[in-house]
């Protein structure tokens, strides 16, 4: 079985000598004796997309053929979406424990839908995501942990939920990001964490395989090459991702707000196009399940909340977090997506690339180790 994104920071912490940290990925054996580690998360660099980037990415091409570093497969958590994955990475916990159970979630007891990317003040972070992060644990163990993030990320709810305890180093668009990462790594032992959204942004806006996506892959490969070439002798570079993805064809998009039968009985819509959470009107759950199961047969698996939890989609779920999951959970299969044009900004329906569901193309991610 592949390891999980949840295993990466505990294994890294064990490598850096944090008491109680378990190296379930075996980094101590494969990486060896180092006192500083750089972890870079490339948003959207799914395992199954690696062959598609090799013409633009000499370093990743060499990794894929075994010429550079070590490559192995991990899995992200479900839903395969950035907020969920980042908090799974940061806490080492399954979504059913940390509570960031999707891209957007209904705040229980309200009609409000929280977009985790835009989350700032409410709800309070320590209430919405109360678990400690591995950045907290590193800091408490006296291991310096730095996160180099765009300035506007710092102070957001998602950043605090995923990386609380890190020393945040703000970056700007005109910075030499690679050099700043290298300088931090050389300055002090410990962990240096970096993140790039470039590839995922191009996948969403222009599509996987588009010229813009290939150009982003080349930029990321250049970044990783500089980092790899500048590693001190006592350091390792670990590269991973938060999810994969693919393009959804125009004729594989179902707009729930264009069909009154799909909108009937639904009170609040959350999630995202590949995984929908439907919070139903009182007494309407069974009818919504029946209608969606019939109309989306062959396009999606339709579960009640209880069925989705029992199937283990989110890992064990804390009882207090159950209301965040829809009364009905719709998981798209194949290449389908469910739009909600009456509930979400119009730009959501214009995206080309998607992810979020449980297919291998969305869930499988790489772990690249370079010394």
From TrEMBL:
It comes from the Bacteria. Gene3D superfamilies: Alkaline Phosphatase, subunit A. It holds the Pfam family Phosphodiest. One of its GO terms (molecular function) is hydrolase activity. SUPFAM superfamilies: Alkaline phosphatase-like. InterPro entries: Alkaline_phosphatase_core_sf, Phosphodiest/P_Trfase. Coiled coil: none annotated. This is Nucleotide pyrophosphatase. The lineage of its organism: Bacteria, Bacillati, Actinomycetota, Actinomycetes, Mycobacteriales.
């Amino acid at each position: 079985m592949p390891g999980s994104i949840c295993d990466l920071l505990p294994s890294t912490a064990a490598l850096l000598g944090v008491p109680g940290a378990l190296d379930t990925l075996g980094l101590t054996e494969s990486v060896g004796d180092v006192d500083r580690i750089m972890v870079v998360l490339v948003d959207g660099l799914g395992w199954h997309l690696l062959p598609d980037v090799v013409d633009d990415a000499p370093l990743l091409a060499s990794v894929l053929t075994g010429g550079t570093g070590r490559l192995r497969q991990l899995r992200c958590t479900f839903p395969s979406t950035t907020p969920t994955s980042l908090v799974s990475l940061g806490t080492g916990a399954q979504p059913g424990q940390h509570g960031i159970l999707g891209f957007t979630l209904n705040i229980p007891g309200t009609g409000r839908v929280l977009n985790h990317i835009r989350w700032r003040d409410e709800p309070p972070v320590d209430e919405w995501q109360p678990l400690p992060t591995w950045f907290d644990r590193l800091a408490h163990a006296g291991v310096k942990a730095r996160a180099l993030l765009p300035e506007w990320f710092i102070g957001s709810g998602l950043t605090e939920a995923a990386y609380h305890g890190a020393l945040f180093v703000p970056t700007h668009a005109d910075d030499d990001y690679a050099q700043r990462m290298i300088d931090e790594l050389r300055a002090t032992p410990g962990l240096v964490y970096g993140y790039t959204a470039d590839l995922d942004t191009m996948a969403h806006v222009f599509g996987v395989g588009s010229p813009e996506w290939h150009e982003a892959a080349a930029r990321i490969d250049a970044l990783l090459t500089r980092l790899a070439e500048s590693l001190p002798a006592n350091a390792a570079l670990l590269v991973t991702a938060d999810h994969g993805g693919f393009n959804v064809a125009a004729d594989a998009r179902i707009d729930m707000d264009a069909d009154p039968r799909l909108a009937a009985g639904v009170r609040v819509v959350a999630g995202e196009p590949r995984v929908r959470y439907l919070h139903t009107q009182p007494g309407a759950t069974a009818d919504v399940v029946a209608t969606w199961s019939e109309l989306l047969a062959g396009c999606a698996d339709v579960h009640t909340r209880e069925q989705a939890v029992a199937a283990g989609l989110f890992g064990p779920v804390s009882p207090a977090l159950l209301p965040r999951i829809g009364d009905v959970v719709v998981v798209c299969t194949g290449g389908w997506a469910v739009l909600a044009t009456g509930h979400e900004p119009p730009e959501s329906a214009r995206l080309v690339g998607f992810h979020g569901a449980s297919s291998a193309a969305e869930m499988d991610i790489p772990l690249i180790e370079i010394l």
